[in-house]
Amino acid sequence: MQATMKRLVLYPALTGLLLLASVVAQAQPENFEFGVIVQAAQVDGGENSLQQAINISNEDNLAFVVANGIKSDSENCSDNAYSRSRKIFGRSENALIVSLVASDWVNCKTKNGKSIAIERLNRVRDLFFADDVSFGNTGISLIRQSSSAKFRSYAENARWEYGDILFATINLPADNNHYLPEAGRNSEFEDRAIANREWLERIFTHAAQRKNQAIVLFCDGNPLVAPDAAKLAKLKGRRDGFVEMRKQLTALAKKFPGKVLLLHGQKQAKSQAIQWQANIGSMGVNTGWAKIRVQPQSRIPFRSLPVSNTKD
Question: Judging by beta carbons within 10 Å of its beta carbon (0-12, 13-18, 19+), is residue 57 exposed, middle or buried?
Answer without folding.
Answer: buried
